[in-house]
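Can't paste images in this forum, so I'm doing it all in text. The chain is below; anyone willing to post the predicted structure tokens underneath?
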Amino acid sequence: MPHTKLDPIDRMILAELQADGRMTNVELAKRVGISAPPCLRRVRTLEELGFIRGYHATVDARKLGFEVQVFAMVGLVSQAEADLSAFEERCRNWPMVRECHMLNGEVDFILKCTSPDLSTFQTFLTEELTAAENVASVKTSLVIRDAKDEPGVPFDVLEARVNAET
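Text version of the structure:
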């Protein structure tokens, strides 16, 4: 899939939908300069090829009472593939873990956790995360504030790279 060639219109469709996934197909078609039927076909193809993985609303966690955001750096005892996969599966089942990324280097995983308060996170940390099988160490950093939180990819960087190749 990474080798699939996208034309400029496909890339514009992706950029527009990344910025506003709620717009109608008619509005999207207008923004990218094509008529609605081929635009819808292109969107469906982009979905089928996996370039568009889904649509969602960005909700304000703090307005919903989730005041605490923590990054947890996790080191495992074993990095055997079965152990890595087991830890990833465990992370998918923990509701407070919103993101889980395997890293290279000193830390095996970084988790982005969201919690209503510090005591709820502390309970999760001590009773679930540090107690989990194969977990050797956990270091946490509390988020003080968000300076930037952009979803997706930087399409201007993609366009510059594509233009440099042509």
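The longest strand covers residues 68-76. The helical segments are 8-19, 25-32, 36-48, 81-93, 118-129, 155-165.
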